[in-house]
Write a structure and sequence with these properties.
The complex is a heterotrimer of chains A (540), B (287) and C (325). Chain B is mainly alpha-helical and 287 residues long. Chain B has 13 helices and no strands. Chain B has helices at 2-19, 21-43, 54-57, 77-113, 115-129, 133-143, 148-157, 161-174, 178-185, 190-198, 203-226, 238-244, 253-281. By secondary structure, chain C is an all-alpha fold. In chain C, helix 4 packs antiparallel against helix 5. The longest helix of chain C has 39 residues, at 181-219. Classes of the chains: A alpha+beta (540), B mainly alpha (287), C mainly alpha (325).
Chain lengths: 540, 287, 325
């Protein structure tokens, strides 16, 4: 089971590798097909997860975010491939010299799919709802420093705010919602408004056709999409299908029923690369797997012991066995996808001998010869909880074996997903160690996880506390430019790497499988659908 | 007197069962499977959970050193199938034991004592039969770790309702028979009559249902494993071996095929024996 | 008969109330709630508390239960937490898919099962009998998801000739909207072939075994011997006399299979990505989407009890010896 994800579609200026091979020799050459002849056809995107709503206030996961931001609606800004904000619904913007005012100038040629023009009032409405405590918009923290909005004209809006780093990033992830449809609904009733599931009206490159829940969403080209932004998409239709079983999904891809299999299961990688009709695109992705150590347990109090546990675990082998290479061992919470990532960082090396020596000197010795260390009569023996995902079940098995080699007994405890969450977030912290993965936002404000004053709150489940780290984390959002931030984020990573409140296992490489007839699609860290307007189908 | 007649009948049943060639084949298979399960440690060429140098040893096709190949951790599938037999068969046997004990007890009490007790018990059975088993399964798995014991218990506790209906029907017939009336006239206690005179005479369909039920339980465990609710790895059950190898069916067919065949032949064997028993125990039936 | 049906329906009411009460308690016994589904480093705990409040999860248990019960009996099934739409809509979308698949599987089970069983009985001990008995037992003994996945891989294989290709997932093709009425029917039927086969074949094998036994029993009875002795053709004897009587006990099997199928099979629905009740219920339990689980369980109970009643009444109609009152 994957973590639900909220979030920012911005990632960082990192260059994703499109690891695709050369297209097969096909005549005519697809590159030679003139733009005018690329129009038409239906492309099918399929994934294991359901997309529940098009209402941006209740977005639940990564694919949902993408369909909202890139397909049906428009955001004020979007990211270029080096993650600089570029105009989208906003034609231009000005930031006041002291960074406490931003004025957006909107395009005047964007219309809701029912013909109503998109205006600054829609932006103001969306902002009001985002700030409204009755609306549980998951990404609200991006707008914490944004205080008020004032519509200056039909296409001009001014915001006042407190200066902070990554000033505009919230606007690249928030699709603007139609005021003329939703304003009449009380904020607390928005969640049940049929707009989200059966009658969404957008303003993006595709418009809504039909939603067959549990099966598919159908969209068709919006002929009125502004020419300056590329105009009508090449595709006539775009369909998202839910196929909740990976083997079925792969079979559909192979037989042509699906053009893009999103977040492909690693086991199919070799087969996809060997198939002349398919190509694989893999890129670093802000999702990492970790083992959290409950520092209230005597085993995990000391950073030294936690480091020893990490060193005992062969993370390269885990990456190979579980992900078939589609991941990289993590040096800390800041992955290779992040702009502040330092390529000189080395993850702790795999060294059972050093690990054993550290445990020995920390007083953990196997005195009774049962293969498990003890200290003060306590055996080094604990449970590793995880949910019933096969990937993490496998990791738990491997970890059990690695730790046994250094005289530590870890018992995998595989539980139903919600049960693990309930145990971990409970104030009593009913767990020893747990293994999960999650997706991060671009702006690494992770104080809820690590800060001393959040101990007792649901997300601070390790009860780890380091006042020095707190100071660093507090100053990151106050830094107003990237050069000031870089050093702080790097320190943040280094300190967590040294203390290992988590064992950071690996950072995922997300991989998508595409049929070769689908052209113009180059998935990267911004998502599979960022360039959906220029997808086209090649028919030799 | 009664027990003599019973022994006589038993001998007659065995004679008829023996003539049933397919049932004998099934029985032989079950004996063989149970034997291998018991002797698994002696027969298995490898430790079923051993993983060494995974990347070099995984996904190997069947060969002389690994007659059924290796799985994605490089573990020997033949050894895992042998050890898996222990888990799958014990889940099958124990869950059915729970189901028939509960089902017989409740069905017999309901049928024998009748009246309001009967109504209450049978409405309870109706309720459970029309209760979505899936909800119960997920909640139990959420509350407790999905261990072998839990899976066995869950399958046992959700499988007894059919048995109780059969038993109740039988008891209703038997309790009106002359020897029961005779026992009553002789002043025997009701519990004693139920245990000594009624129950032994209603067990025939229970035995048949139990035999057929073992196979179904093994299939149910496989379905649970598919949903991630079955016996958890690294412990090998046939069900979770098929379920966890399913994504590699195209490239490493052997991972699912051998445990899958083990399930198929086991379920077949229990069904053959069940059919044979039914025919042998019911003289009116023709094979 | 009508009085009998009415009494049975009346008896169903406490059972159904029992079911929903039990489900409610079970669900709240399980750790987690709909708001824990929002657990994520990017979501602050305050927003999760806010959600809990919006969903009424901060109220005492009995209050939540009574509120649900009250609205349920006024026909308001509530809103799905995870799908953001009325529960009635969730069921309206999923139920027809399940019923369609079940109905087709049911026909397959009984038609194929009876036909195979009858042939086996007539040709008892022939090679045909032995082979079909073995094959049907083999299929019966396979885990359903394994059989389903093998079908999917076989029918999507590049080696499969084009005319044998069948849709491997979903209820309709992507271009369904653009099809004419006849094409649409053909498309739906084609999509039904593999899932209904995978769902029904094991039960069909069961029916075949039962039919074989039942027909053999009838064939050996006196009136069939009489019919033969009168010089009627074997074909006529079997079709007119034996088959009809052999079918009577088969009807009782209907009561067994109907409820199983109506509940929807999660495994088959997941494997063939069929958007039916089984998957809706399963996802709802995992997401702790209480209103959907409650309504779906209630419906499941209604269908099972209804199917049992239907089977009993059918049985009474066919076999006059059974009295219903």
């Amino acid at each position: 089971m994957r973590w639900p994800r909220y979030s920012s579609l911005i990632a960082a200026p990192l260059v994703a590798c499109a690891c695709a091979g050369e297209p097969p020799v096909a005549e005519p050459d697809p590159a030679a097909v003139p733009a005018a002849e690329r129009y038409g056809g239906t492309a099918v995107v399929a994934g294991m997860g359901e997309i529940q709503t098009m209402n941006a206030f209740f977005s639940r996961d990564y694919m949902t975010d993408q369909f909202q931001a890139y397909v049906l609606f428009m955001t004020l800004l979007r990211n270029d491939d080096e993650l600089r904000s570029e105009p989208y619904l906003a034609r231009s913007w000005t930031v006041s010299p002291d960074s406490n005012e931003v004025v957006f100038e909107l395009r005047d040629d964007v219309f809701w799919h029912d013909g109503t023009p998109t205006t600054a009032y829609d932006v103001a409405f969306t902002f009001d709802r985002v700030k409204d405590p009755a609306v549980p918009y998951p990404n609200r923290s991006s707008f914490d420093a944004w205080e008020s909005a004032e519509v200056l004209g039909p296409h001009t809006i001014r915001f006042t705010l407190r200066p902070h780093a990554d000033l505009l990033h919230g606007w690249t992830a928030l699709p603007i919602m139609p005021r003329h449809i939703l304003a009449g609904t009380a904020p607390e009733d928005l969640a049940t408004h049929p707009f989200g599931t059966s009658e969404p009206v957008g303003n993006g490159p595709f418009r809504f056709v039909e939603h067959l829940p549990g099966d598919r969403w159908i969209f068709e080209a919006n002929p009125d999409f502004p020419a300056e932004l590329g105009g009508r998409p090449y595709l006539d239709r775009l369909v998202y299908r839910v196929v909740p079983n990976e083997t079925t999904l792969f079979a559909e891809l192979r037989s042509g029923g699906v053009d893009m299999y999103v977040r492909v299961a690693p086991v199919f990688v070799d087969r996809i690369e060997a198939d002349p009709d398919l190509r694989l695109v893999a890129y670093p992705f802000p999702n990492y797997s970790f083992i959290a150590w409950n520092s209230m347990r005597p085993f995990f109090e000391s950073a030294g012991v936690r480091r020893a546990l990490t060193m005992a675990i062969d993370r390269s082998e885990i990456v190979e066995v579980v992900r078939h290479g589609l991941a990289t061992p993590a040096a800390g919470p800041v992955g290779a996808w992040h702009w502040a990532y330092d390529s000189a960082w080395q993850p702790l090396g795999h060294s059972p001998d050093s690990a054993a020596a550290i445990l020995e000197s920390a007083g953990w010795r196997d005195t009774d010869g049962d293969g498990v260390r003890e200290r003060d009569g306590v055996r080094f023996s604990f449970d590793i909880s995880t949910n019933e995902s096969r990937e993490r079940g496998s990791i738990a098995e491997l970890v059990q074996r690695y730790l046994a080699q250094v005289g530590v007994e870890a018992r995998p405890r595989i539980r139903e997903h919600q049960t693990v969450i309930a145990d971990v977030t409970s104030p009593e912290r009913r767990y020893d160690a747990f293994l999960l993965s999650w997706t991060q936002g671009l702006v690494l404000d992770e104080r809820d996880q690590w800060a001393c004053d959040r101990i007792g709150k649901p997300l601070q489940f390790t009860s780890y506390c380091n006042p020095e780290l707190d100071a660093v984390m507090d100053s990151i959002p106050r830094a107003t430019d990237r050069s000031a931030q870089e050093g702080l984020i790097r320190r943040y990573n280094t300190m967590l790497a040294a203390d290992q409140p988590f064992t950071f296992l690996y950072v995922e490489k997300r991989a998508d499988a595409l049929r070769r007839r689908l052209r113009g699609a180059s998935p990267d860290f911004r998502g599979e659908l960022a360039d959906v307007r220029s997808w086209w189908l090649f028919q030799p | 007197m009664l027990s003599l007649a019973r022994r006589e009948r038993g001998r007659e049943t065995w004679r008829r069962f023996r003539r049933h060639r397919q049932a004998i084949l099934g029985l032989a298979l079950i004996v063989l499977l149970t034997g291998t399960a018991l002797l698994a440690p002696a027969l298995a060429p490898y430790d079923p959970d051993a993983q060494t140098d995974i990347v070099a040893t995984r996904y190997q096709a069947p060969s002389a050193s690994h007659p059924m190949g290796t799985d994605r951790f490089g573990r020997d599938i033949f050894s895992r199938v042998l050890y898996g037999a222990r888990i799958s068969l014990s889940i099958g046997f124990l869950a059915i034991l729970i189901a028939i004990t509960l089902g017989t007890a409740i069905g017999a009490v309901a049928g024998f004592f009748g009246g309001r007790l009967d109504t209450v018990l049978m409405r309870g059975v109706d309720l459970l039969l029309s209760f979505p088993r899936l909800v119960l399964l997920v909640v139990l798995v959420a509350l407790f770790q999905p261990s072998i014991a839990l899976v066995t218990l869950v399958l046992g506790l959700t499988g007894w309702m059919g048995v109780s209906r059969i038993v109740r029907g039988q008891v209703l017939t038997v309790r009106e028979m002359e020897f029961v009336t005779a026992a009553r006239v002789l002043g025997f206690g009701r519990t004693r009559i139920l245990a000594r005179h009624v129950l032994p005479n209603v067990l025939t369909p229970v035995i048949v249902a139990a035999t057929l039920g073992i196979g179904n339980t093994i299939l149910a465990e496989a379905a649970l494993s598919f949903l991630g609710l079955g016996v958890q790895p690294p412990t090998a059950s046939w069900g979770n071996m098929v379920a966890s190898g399913r994504d590699a069916m195209l490239d490493a067919w052997w991972i699912t095929t051998f445990p899958g065949l083990a399930i198929v032949f086991t379920v077949m064997a229990f069904n053959l024996v069940g059919d044979g028993l039914r025919d042998a125990l019911d003289p009116r039936r023709v094979a | 008969m009508i009085r009998y049906a009415a009494r049975r329906l009346l008896e169903a009411v406490p059972i159904l109330i029992g079911i929903v009460t039990l489900i409610f308690l079970l669900l709240h016994l399980a750790p987690g709630d709909p708001a824990t589904a929002y657990f994520n480093p990017n979501v602050s705990p305050e927003i999760i508390d806010r959600m809990r409040e919006n969903l009424g999860l901060d109220r005492p248990l009995h209050e939540q239960y009574l509120r649900w019960l009250r609205s349920f009996f006024t026909g308001d099934f509530g809103y799905s937490f995870s799908q953001h739409r009325p529960v009635a809509d969730v069921i309206r979308d999923a139920l027809p898919n399940t019923l369609l698949l079940s109905a087709v599987s049911l026909v397959l089970i009984f038609v194929v099962g009876c036909a195979v069983g009858a042939v086996q009985a007539v040709r008892q001990y022939s090679a045909l009998d032995n082979v079909t008995t073995f094959v049907s037992l083999f299929v019966y003994s396979m885990p359903g998801f394994w059989l389903g996945l093998m079908l999917i891989l076989a029918f999507s294989s590049p080696a499969m000739p084009e005319f044998l290709r069948l849709p491997i997932s979903g209820v309709t093709s992507i271009d369904y909207e653009f099809m004419g009425p006849i094409e649409r029917i053909v498309d739906r039927v084609r999509h039904l072939v593999l899932p209904s086969f995978a769902l029904g074949i094991a039960s069909a094998a069961g029916v075949a075994r039962y039919m074989r036994g039942s027909l053999l029993e009838v064939i050996n009875q006196d009136y069939i011997r009489t019919a033969r002795a009168k010089g009627l053709s074997e074909r006529r004897v079997i079709l007119k006399h034996a088959l009809r009587n052999a079918l009577i006990p088969i009807v009782s099997l209907l009561g067994l299979y109907l409820p199983l199928l109506f509940g929807g099979s999660v495994v088959i629905e997941v494997v063939f990505s069929w958007p039916g009740m089984g998957r809706a219920l399963y996802n709802a339990i995992l997401a702790r989407d209480y209103p959907v689980v409650m309504a779906a369980s209630f419906l499941f109970g209604v269908l099972v009890l209804g199917a049992n009643l239907l089977a009993d009444m059918l049985y009474a109609v066919i076999d006059p010896r059974i009295r219903t009152d």
